[in-house]
Fold:
Amino acid sequence: AALGYVADTNKADTKKFPKHAKDQKCSACQLYTGKAADVSGPCSLFPGKHVMPSGWCSAWVKKPA
Structure:
């Protein structure tokens, strides 16, 4: 909850997290280890849990190109 995770990046609280951008999705984050086409995948930030590729949290870090 403290990281503001949402299953849909479009539903992120932009007032609480003003640096959020609509193109920031879990599937494009370094911490997401699933594949973009997966229904859900693991995130190193949430051990033992899966997150949605279309999701977002405030720890989002762009994957290197």
Q: What stands out?
A: The chain has a mean pLDDT of 94.
